[in-house]
Specification:
Elements: E1 2-7, H1 10-18, E2 26-32, E3 40-45, H2 47-50, H3 60-66, E4 72-76, H4 79-96, E5 100-104, E6 107-111, H5 115-130, E7 134-139, H6 142-151, E8 157-159, H7 162-170, H8 182-190, H9 204-211, H10 213-223, E9 239-250, H11 253-274, E10 276-287, E11 292-303, H12 310-323, E12 328-340
Parallel strand pairs: 2-4, 7-8
Antiparallel strand pairs: 1-6, 1-7, 2-3, 5-6, 9-12, 10-11, 10-12
Helix pairs in contact: 4-5, 6-7, 9-10, 11-12
Length: about 350
């Protein structure tokens, strides 16, 4: 069985939690261009904002016309903070499953025969640890898990069997199928297909001729009721992080550093496998009030996976404990600003 986890209106939901007094307002997270006060586009919006027609990709000036100033907040995107929360969620998922691919900052795919049994507890754990809701779909194929999750957002959980999955996919409009974009949908309509159930009418060779071998073959398989479910390889990332829960809330440096050593080993295995060095090190602290904090430093020269960074980790931990008096529930380590071990910068 496959499990698809999709965080609900992720950026806007995070901003809602940061501003509890604004829970009844329209929250719009924006990418401001800086040319004028209103230039730029909407990144994401909460469901209250969606109800008045604000959408991702909409110009900020248009969105402001739909949102009464007294009832809305327009916020610049805080990507580093969202990435920290994403890393925290990633850690929770990896504590429960082994075969995982993070599809984006707010989506994960899991292959596990016991996905259905574990889904409810995973959903509750994410809520407990981050105070954020997510939607989870479980199905015999990854495609089915994604499509059924989309039907129960937000804060949904649904598990379907093979018969239910087949019915769901066959009756779906083509534009609702992940991987079929607007241009492909329009071309398929011109060929006589409106739904997935119409695809068997189209000749496989014709599909390959029009869409290419890979896409055409996939559409033919889809029409035949075969839904390939490989999770795929991890996409290129600009950082790798691992977060874990301490045995108890603590300010004890020994306990914190012991957990960091364990997490560092996991993260460095990733670096070794991909032959990466790094120039940025960060330690993540999640305190007893569930707030996330980060202490980081950058190296003048890239660090290889085998180099000792105990002093640097100790410095970051000591600085944080000096500056903050709260006990720590979870800690994490993050490596970023990657370079190939040969020296060429690949990701920045």
């Amino acid at each position: 069985m496959y499990l698809h986890i999709d965080m609900d209106y992720f950026f806007a939901q995070i901003e809602e939690k940061r501003r509890p007094m604004a829970s009844d307002k329209i929250i719009v997270v924006c990418v401001f261009s800086g040319r004028t006060e209103d230039s730029g586009v909407v990144s994401t919006v909460n469901y209250l904002g969606r109800s008045v027609g604000i959408k991702s990709g909409m110009p900020i000036a248009f969105a402001k016309k739909r949102a009464p100033p007294a009832d809305s907040i327009f916020i610049p995107m805080d990507r580093p903070y969202y990435n920290e929360i994403s890393a925290q969620i990633d850690s929770i998922i990896r504590e429960n499953f082994e075969k995982i691919v993070q599809a984006s900052v707010d989506e994960w795919n899991v292959d596990d025969p016991k996905s259905g049994e574990k889904a409810a507890e995973l959903k509750n754990e994410i809520l407990r640890e981050t105070n954020l809701t997510c939607t989870i779909g479980v199905a015999p194929s990854l495609l089915g898990a994604k499509m059924v999750a989309a039907k129960v957002k937000p804060n949904g959980l649904i598990i379907i069997n093979e018969e239910e999955e087949k019915k769901l996919i066959e009756n779906s409009a083509l534009e609702k199928v992940p991987g079929i974009g607007p241009k492909t949908t329009e071309t398929l309509r011109l060929m006589g297909a409106e739904k997935v159930s119409d695809l068997p009418k189209l000749d496989r060779l014709r599909l390959v001729e029009v869409f290419g071998r890979k896409m055409g073959g996939w559409l033919s398989e889809l029409g035949s009721g075969r839904y390939p479910s490989e999770l795929g390889e991890d996409k290129d990332q600009d950082e790798i992080s691992r977060i874990g829960t301490l045995k108890e809330k603590t300010r004890d440096q020994y306990m914190i550093k012991s957990k960091l050593k364990e997490l560092e080993k996991e993260a460095k295995s990733w670096l070794i496998e991909r032959k990466k060095s790094y120039r940025t090190l960060a330690i993540i602290f999640i305190t007893e009030d569930l707030k996330t904090h980060t202490k980081s430093l950058s190296f003048r020269n890239p660090k290889g996976w085998s180099e000792d960074i105990e002093k640097e980790k100790e410095t970051l931990v000591s600085e944080f404990l000096f500056e903050n008096q709260m006990e720590i529930r979870r800690v994490g380590i993050r490596f970023g600003n990657f370079m190939d071990l040969g020296g060429q910068t690949t990701l920045f």
